[in-house]
Design goal:
This protein is of the alpha+beta class and about 80 residues long. The protein has two helices and three strands; from the N terminus they run H-H-E-E-E. The relative contact order is 0.16.
Length: about 80
């Protein structure tokens, strides 16, 4: 599997897990329309989800991660 495909899967899984988590927490704590709950959860998940990318480091392609809670990039 190419690294670009792995990165796409990692980005989707990170977003999906956070989206479902936020959606459930908002559903339990608020009683508003489900469309608004989904929109709020999607915005929060897209901001807080880690971002994965393929970078060429020292001639090799590697997966790097950028997250709001860590400083700089982390090589995976």
């Amino acid at each position: 599997m190419k690294l670009k495909h792995k990165v796409l899967i990692y980005n989707f899984l990170a977003f999906a897990v956070l989206f479902v988590l936020f959606r459930f927490i908002l559903y339990v704590s608020l009683s508003i329309n489900s469309l608004y709950l989904s929109a709020i959860a999607a915005i929060a998940a897209s901001i807080l989800a880690p971002k994965f990318a393929v970078a060429k480091i020292e001639g090799l392609e590697k997966i790097v991660m950028k997250w709001v809670f860590i400083k700089g990039f982390r090589i995976l």
